[in-house]
């Protein structure tokens, strides 16, 4: 079994990723994983969104929400680095008027857990991209996520364009996977129904 992301981080070791070539990108499945989540999934993550490097939206057309280190432990302690899918929800304070009703629903998401080798990060991060067009940022707001499955390993790339192409495929794969009945029901997971003060991350 591959070491978990947390085990690599504890050893201050960055895993050596495979480099994705044009040939390697040629044929990716449109749907992955079993018809319903299997261990260690579902994994619940909860935490305030913090500022990251700002590269997702600017460089890649894929804005991401970064969770604090202590918020990602439920996933990093049981999972290897890579790209995952599930559902997420932004929970702003009641007085916050910057959000539309559709911004606050439970939405499909794709997330990266690892060191982003194309950008040579030095620390483990978890970055969530919610598959929805927001009109405002949500730094500091609480995010709740239920991680339900694994898409692919973390990779390095020969170009930014190759990375973007894989990210776009990841989004499509996540949406396809989440349309299955065994996954749809997790959009109603208890974590999305609870008041903010009562929510805890779990495995």
UniProtKB/TrEMBL annotation:
Catalyzes the phosphorylation of riboflavin (vitamin B2) to form flavin mononucleotide (FMN) coenzyme. GO terms for cellular component: mitochondrion. PANTHER family: RIBOFLAVIN KINASE, RIBOFLAVIN KINASE/FMN ADENYLYLTRANSFERASE. It comes from Hypholoma sublateritium (strain FD-334 SS-4). Pathway: Cofactor biosynthesis; FMN biosynthesis; FMN from riboflavin (ATP route): step 1/1. InterPro entries: Riboflavin_kinase, Riboflavin_kinase_bac/euk, Riboflavin_kinase_dom_sf. The keyword ATP-binding applies. Gene3D superfamilies: Riboflavin kinase-like. SMART domains: Flavokinase. One of its GO terms (molecular function) is riboflavin kinase activity. It comes from the Eukaryota. GO terms for biological process: FMN biosynthetic process; riboflavin biosynthetic process. Transmembrane segments: none annotated. Its EC number is 2.7.1.26. This is Riboflavin kinase. Keywords: ATP-binding, Flavoprotein, FMN, Nucleotide-binding, Transferase. Belongs to the flavokinase family. Residues 44-179 form the Riboflavin kinase domain.
């Amino acid at each position: 079994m591959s070491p978990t992301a947390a085990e690599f981080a504890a050893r201050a070791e960055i895993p050596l990723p495979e480099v994705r070539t044009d040939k390697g990108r040629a044929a990716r499945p449109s749907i992955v994983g079993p018809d319903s989540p299997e261990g260690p999934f579902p994994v619940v993550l909860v935490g305030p969104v913090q500022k990251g490097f700002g590269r997702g939206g600017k460089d890649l057309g894929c804005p991401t929400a970064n969770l604090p280190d202590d918020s990602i432990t439920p996933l990093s302690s049981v999972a290897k680095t890579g790209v995952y899918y599930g559902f997420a929800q932004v929970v702003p304070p009641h007085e916050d008027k910057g959000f539309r009703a559709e911004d606050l629903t439970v939405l499909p998401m794709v997330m990266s857990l690892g060191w982003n080798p194309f950008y040579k990060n030095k620390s483990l991060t978890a970055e969530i991209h919610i598959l929805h067009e927001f009109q405002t940022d949500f730094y500091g707001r609480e995010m709740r996520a239920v991680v339900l499955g694994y898409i692919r390993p973390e990779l390095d790339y020969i170009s930014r364009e190759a990375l973007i192409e894989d990210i776009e495929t990841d989004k499509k794969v996540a949406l396809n996977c989440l349309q299955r009945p065994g996954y749809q029901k997790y959009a109603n997971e208890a974590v999305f129904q609870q008041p903010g003060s009562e929510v805890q991350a779990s495995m």
